[in-house]
Amino acid sequence: MNISELGEFPLIKRLTEDIKIYHPKETIMGVGDDAAILAPLGTTPITTPTTTYQVVTTDLLVENVHFDLTYVPLRHLGYKAVAVNLSDVFAMNATPKQITVSIAVSSRFTVEALDELYAGIKLCCDKYKVDLAGGDTTSSTSGLIISVTALGTTEVPVKRDGAKENDILCVSGDLGSAYAGLQLLEKEKRHFLANPDMQPDFKDFSYVLERQLKPEPRADIIKLLRERGVRPTSMIDISDGLSSEILHIATASNAGAVIYENKIPIDTETYRALEQFNIMPLTAALNGGEDYELLFTVSPSDYDKIAHTREIRPIGHITEAATGCNLVPENGALIPLSAQGWQSFG
Ligand code: ADP
Ligand code: MG
User: Fold this and answer.
1) Is 184 helix (H, G, I), strand (E, B) or coil?
2) pLDDT for res 4
3) What's the pLDDT score for residue 166?
4) What are residue 306's phi and psi, to 5 degrees?
5) How far is the CA of 32 from the centre of ligand 1 (A)?
6) Which atom of ligand 1 is nearest to the CA of 240?
7) 154 with 114: CB under 8 angstroms?
8) Whose CA is nearest to atom 10 of ligand 1?
9) In what helix (H) or strand (E) does residue 212 lie, and over which residues does it extend?
10) pLDDT tens, 232-253?
11) Is 32 in the pocket of ligand 1 (CB under 6 A)?
12) What pLDDT, on a 0 to 100 scale, did the predictor assign at position 110?
């Protein structure tokens, strides 16, 4: 069978469904979430015993599949490779502590180019106070491949499977902007290939470009939730588009969901950037991906604690499984959500 016939998520399911867990007390949750949850690291046996769990996640970035060096500076690439892994750690309600970085490099790269890549990697480690604890280096016959693994700790892991009927669905930041940035960069690449003397015209689009080239994982949201005493019932980071992630939470939680078009946060610059491509901003928000925002559910009784927070928006709520996942458009009938986001084998 062709891999593209099956698709990425069914492929992962097929490859991993009969995995045996030999250490159930230590491998608390394996495949199936933003990160795996490992054994408690220690117990503080005072009056309020706390258990600290470790989480671990890994991502692989391949040149010309995940990034295009004609318009991605290596320093940004290094930063982003770390940032997207930290995003998965935060999505478990955990604090990232260490990463490992493995690279495969073809002979076309200079030492100075790899210095640039590592300058970005170190900058992101600095910003989020993460220790680079190891990795591997080898050669490649086809460009650059970067694999980052991130480890973190949490006393309260939050998985995808805890959403309950009537919980409020919330999203941080705004959506669709990284996809808008990608469209601009791809357009300038086409112009450049047609006429190498062309200078890119990026003025007035710094926000969407930054969202594509230098995403920031939402450490601030995890901190805010903690400070306000809100424990999300489920959480995921938005890497493949809002639709796909809502379906992940709903499937894992055996629930349905409804979201409202007019509640989905989209920046005005995203509207402006997408106008020239005839792409609806709503489509970019639902299916664009690479937002690295957090999607989470909170119980209605907790919602007041985060209402009126500028960086968090309620976009809908959890329903019973039978209703499925739907979008209420500004005009017209319910639209069932489908996962059309980024597909590795599409
Ligand atoms: P994310 O988008 O959050 O990085 P993925 O969609 O890549 O998550 O992966 C979903 C789940 O499947 C994760 O738990 C991940 O660890 C697991 N997974 C992905 N690919 C493989 C693989 N080849 N072998 C084992 N587990 C995998
Ligand atoms: Mg994720």
Assistant:
1) helix
2) 87
3) 98
4) -120, 0
5) 7
6) 2
7) no
8) 32
9) helix 206-213
10) 999 999 999 999 999 999 999 9
11) yes
12) 95
Spatial distance between the Cα atoms of 148 and 59, rounded to a whole number of angstroms:
6
Q: How far is C-alpha 134 from the geometric centre of its chain's CA atoms?
A: 23
Amino acid symbol at 294:
L
Minimal-distance CA residue to ligand 1 atom 7: 59
pLDDT score recorded for residue 199: 79
Whether the model pTM is above 0.85: yes
Ligand 1: does its nearest atom lie under 6 Å from the Cβ of 16?
yes
Residue nearest to atom 11 of ligand 1 (CA): 32
Residues of the chain with pLDDT under 50: none
Q: What is the C-alpha to C-alpha distance for residues 85 and 98, in angstroms, rounded to an integer?
A: 11
- The whole-number pLDDT of residue 46 equals 64
CA-84 nearest atom, ligand 1: 4
Whether 15 is in the pocket of ligand 1, judged by its Cβ within 6 Å, is yes
* CA 33 to ligand 1: nearest atom: 14
**157 CA distance to ligand 2 centroid (A)?**
14
Q: Quote the tokens at residue 148.
A: 């980052």
From atom 21 of ligand 1, which residue's Cα is the shortest distance away?
A: 12
Residue 283 CB contacts under 8 Å (≥ 6 apart), including other chains: 176
pLDDT, residue 142, reads 87
Spell 218-243 as b/e; 16+ CB within 10 A means b: bbebbebbeeeebbbbbbbbbbbbbb
Q: Which residue's CA is the nearest one to ligand 1's atom 1? A: 34
Question: What's the CA-to-centroid distance between 111 and ligand 2, angstroms?
Answer: 32
Condensed to tens digits (0 to 9), the pLDDT of residues 264-320 reads 999 999 999 999 999 999 999 999 999 999 999 999 999 999 999 999 999 999 999
10 Å Cβ neighbour count for 88?
25
Closest-lying ligand 1 atom to the alpha carbon of residue 36:
14
pLDDT of residue 53: 95
* Domains in the chain with CATH codes: 3-154 (3.30.1330.10), 168-336 (3.90.650.10)
pLDDT tens per residue across span 144-167? 999 999 999 999 999 999 999 999
Q: Could you identify the atom of ligand 1 that is nearest to the CA of residue 57?
A: 16
| Alpha carbon of 198 to ligand 2 centroid (Å) | 37
